[in-house]
């Protein structure tokens, strides 16, 4: 979904607070190439699986992912007590708060866990889609229910220091920093609402998502005033009251207008039968095309790596 390769200046030291010194974010030219290639993707593109990296830790329910150098940062929610829907809404909520723990995992190319940051407080324990802006990793953590509240954090990948930035009055399910304007683009529960915040948490813009193709789960800056979002829609299966078909997809959005520039379905499925864009996804520019990383399964997860060639029209 999203991005280009960064380089890391030093090796991570386990057991200390000093990770590595991340290099500046991708060049303008490389971001432009990623956007141009994305716009030439179609349903006919063949995604070839290149790697399957088994993650050597309990991933719980992964949510968002980004890459800094050779390290992967992935948000996840550990559910201790599931939410339960009310028969009738209570105090503006449609369900109980449940209980859980928010995580930001750091792991290497072999799937080895290097760091586990706990994020959130009280009923705010559900991290969402994350973004790296070349300096900080932005992580929203929300209540596990719509129309609730959130905390927006930024994490320094060099020191792994966590800083609370602001608290929106809604469930924020994904966030992206506009590196040019310095503002933050965000999506609500099911991505039905788009937000634009400044770093004080003031709402600069709020609009409805015009697309009902998929709900965005993870978004990230793609350069050239664009962001790429991935996600899922659960559709009913004929003849079954409970079975669902997972429709996956990716979309390129203009960050200025939040209009969709290009979108397409993704029909790749995991070993557990989940569409690969179910939760954490990011895209990376390659010489011949685009590389996609995804972690669609819960608990005993694998990072699936695909590549596709892209020809200009």
TrEMBL record:
This protein's UniProt keywords: Signal
Nucleotide-binding as a keyword of this entry, yes or no, is no
Q: Does the keyword Signal apply?
A: yes
Mark the transmembrane ranges.
Answer: none
Pfam families in UniProt? DUF6454
The signal peptide here is 1-20
Protein name, UniProt field? WG repeat-containing protein
């Amino acid at each position: 979904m999203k991005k280009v390769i960064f380089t890391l200046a030093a090796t991570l030291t386990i057991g200390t607070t000093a990770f590595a010194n991340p290099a500046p974010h991708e060049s303008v030219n490389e971001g432009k190439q990623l956007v141009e290639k994305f716009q030439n993707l179609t349903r006919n593109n063949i995604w070839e699986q290149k790697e399957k990296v088994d993650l050597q830790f309990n991933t719980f329910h992964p949510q968002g992912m980004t890459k800094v150098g050779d390290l992967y940062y992935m948000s996840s929610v550990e559910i201790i007590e599931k939410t339960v829907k009310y028969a009738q809404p209570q105090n503006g909520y449609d369900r109980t708060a449940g209980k859980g723990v928010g995580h930001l995992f750091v792991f290497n190319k072999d799937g080895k866990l290097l760091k586990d940051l706990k994020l959130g407080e009280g009923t705010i324990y559900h991290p969402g889609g994350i973004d790296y802006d070349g300096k900080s990793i932005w992580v929203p953590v929300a209540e596990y229910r719509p129309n609730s509240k959130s905390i927006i954090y930024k994490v320094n990948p060099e020191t792994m220091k966590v800083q609370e930035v602001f608290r929106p009055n809604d469930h924020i399910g994904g966030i992206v920093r506009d590196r040019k304007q310095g503002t933050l683009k965000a999506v609500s529960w099911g991505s039905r609402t788009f937000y634009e915040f400044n770093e004080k948490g003031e709402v600069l813009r709020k609009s409805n998502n015009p697309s009902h193709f998929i709900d965005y789960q993870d978004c990230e800056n793609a350069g050239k005033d664009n962001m790429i979002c991935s996600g899922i829609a659960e559709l009913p299966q004929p003849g079954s009251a409970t079975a669902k078909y997972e429709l996956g997809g990716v979309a390129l959005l203009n960050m200025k207008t939040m209009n969709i520039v290009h979108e397409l379905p993704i029909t790749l499925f995991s070993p557990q039968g989940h569409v690969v864009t179910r939760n954490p996804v990011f895209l990376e520019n390659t010489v011949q095309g685009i590389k996609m990383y995804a972690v669609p399964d819960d608990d005993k997860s694998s990072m699936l790596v695909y590549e596709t060639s892209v020809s200009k029209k």
